[in-house]
């Protein structure tokens, strides 16, 4: 029993996050070329967190998000679908507010975000800045969280035929040990 209590007090946490993108990476239609996102993009991946003192922590995520594009050909009228891989790596400073309720902790977070994606994916940027907020619930042996995140990706700087949006919003749910 004492071992479980000591483990729960460990400064290192880990878990999994999952959720949905509230904004489509490529919007409804781009540059009148008929390229669009199908809007069915989910997000999932592991995270690690180093809990510091007085409510502060640092979290690093590895979030997988498929990008599903549809292309309507203006010549033939045919619809083609393509799927691409995209991994996001936000590194966030996090602060949990100390409130009298011991089981509920509101939180804010912010930090740089990095992205790796399929080389054939049209013009996604590789870096940006993420900030967000949410609530964490502490129950026996686990921490449950819900977060709303906003990421502003830097301008890609190239002249691709279809440019993604620079802003992205996500709703994430997590379980940590």
Give a structural overview.
Helix content is 4%, strand content 58%. With 177 residues, it is mainly beta. It has one domain (10-176): Beta Barrel (Porin), CATH 2.40.160. It has an eight-stranded antiparallel β-barrel with strand order 1-3-4-8-9-10-11-12. The longest helix is centred in the N-terminal third of the chain and has 7 residues, at 2-8. Mean pLDDT is 81; it is low at 1-7, 28-33 and 158-162. It is elongated, with a radius of gyration of 19 Å.
How are the SSEs placed, and which strands pair?
Elements: H1 2-8, E1 12-21, E2 35-37, E3 42-51, E4 56-61, E5 63-64, E6 67-72, E7 79-84, E8 86-96, E9 104-117, E10 127-139, E11 142-153, E12 167-176
Antiparallel strand pairs: 1-3, 1-12, 2-6, 3-4, 4-8, 5-8, 6-7, 8-9, 9-10, 10-11, 11-12
Number of helices: 1
**Overall pLDDT score:** 81
Poorly predicted spans: 1-7, 28-33, 158-162
Radius of gyration: 19 Å
CATH level 1 name: Mainly Beta
Q: Order of helices and strands, N to C?
A: HEEEEEEEEEEEE
Helicity level: under 10%
* N-C termini distance: 16 Å
* Domain tally: 1
CATH overall fold name: Porin
Looking at the overall shape, the CATH architecture is Beta Barrel
Strand order of the largest sheet: 1-3-4-8-9-10-11-12
Which structural category fits the helices and strands? mainly beta
Note the main sheet.
8 strands, antiparallel, barrel
Shape type: elongated
Number of strands: 12
Which percent range describes the beta-strand content?
over 45%
Please sum up the structure shown.
With 177 residues, this protein is mainly beta. The protein is 4% helix and 58% strand.
